[in-house]
Amino acid sequence: MAHALMNYLDPGAIVLGVKAATDQDVIRILADRLQALGYVKPSFADAVLAREATLPTGLPLGGDNNVAVPHTDPEHVLRPGLALATLVEPVSFSNMEYPDEKLQVSVVFLMALNDKDKQIEMLQEIAGTIQSPEIISALIQSKSVEDVSRLLR
Amino acid sequence: MTRQKTVLFACGTGIATSTVVAHAVEDAMKERGIRFNSRQCKTTEVAGQIDDVDLVVTTAQLPKDLSKPVITTLAFLTGIGKAEALDKIEAVLRD
What we know:
By secondary structure, chain A is α/β, with parallel strands linked by helices. Chain A has five helices and five strands. Chain A is globular and about 35 Å long. Chain B contains four helices and four strands. Chain B is globular.
């Protein structure tokens, strides 16, 4: 699978080297970007946080670098889009499969989904990307949007 | 010929994650020569949709007292444990 995530990622919604204390902080940073860029409604951030609290989205990748894919219902979304954060220090997200288990997450993909056909491709691309430990580790090392863009083109 | 079985794919929103899992399982089962009916819903809707279902595949926690087989796995998102998950699904569909 090609890692053509740049087809979905808005360069304005790529935030590298985030210093955040909690999963909520990261989600708010990325949701603010998506709102400023016209992808989501003002209600989006709170809706994602509420969903994350009951239906978490942390995905264990079997090592130190785990990923989270927060998202919420289509009614808070204006058009499909994707935001990315890499973290200086990992933050805790709950495991999607076992919500009582905390995962140390270094890469967060915040998805704005409202189109069933487009969003499955977006999530398939994310799944394809996170199944490559090399790409995830290179993503964490990325210093610029250009680095990310070369990696996920 | 035996009746084609029905698999219910569940995730938190019932649209994003479950669609990816459903496509991955459909493709893999096609390669193994198995066809099935596929449906998706939110995890909160599973209990009300389970009557005509033979198997539930979910990425998130479901109530424990469901009357049908349930496979909970992130394998189709993370790639970890995919072969085992597919073998389990195949076993239920061939049963």
